[in-house]
């Protein structure tokens, strides 16, 4: 007890233990933030503080995951069903509608999935405007 009383808030603090990266929050760019994101932010920040206290050099990061099949499907949904339109109010709702319209069309035209996959590959390879996948409709 004497050691705890002497060291106070420094009791249990670790020495340099190495580097650690903690990624948290990471909202979906196509959806609004919600209570679950707040929970993840609190948990992630708490873990970062605990690791820092334990002696780790903590690197906190948030992944902006704006690439993937969902985004590719939304982009094709825009191209196929909403080309030239702009969001009337909430951009995330507009993007969600493009995605939903694509997924509905995909049920009738399964080949659309291959187009979305090709769009993602082209996008990741840095092809300008991913036109090769968008033109195959």
Quick rundown:
This protein is mainly α.
Written account of the structure:
Helix 3 (69-81) crosses helix 5. Helix 2 (35-53) links the parallel strand 1 and strand 2. 54% of the residues lie in helices and 9% in strands. It folds into 2 domains: 2-61, no CATH class; 69-134, no CATH class. It has 137 residues and is mainly alpha-helical. It has a two-stranded parallel sheet with strand order 1-2. The longest helix has 19 residues, at 35-53.
**Order of SSEs:** HEHEHHHH
- Biggest sheet details: 2 strands, parallel
Q: Which structural category fits the helices and strands? A: mainly alpha
Unreliable stretches (pLDDT < 50, length at least 5) are none
Given the C-alpha coordinates, what overall shape results? elongated
Strand order of the largest sheet: 1-2
The number of helical segments is 6
Report the sheet-strand fraction: 5-15%
How helical, in percent, are the residues? Answer: 40-55%
Whole-number average pLDDT? 86
Radius of gyration: 23 Å
Strand tally: 2
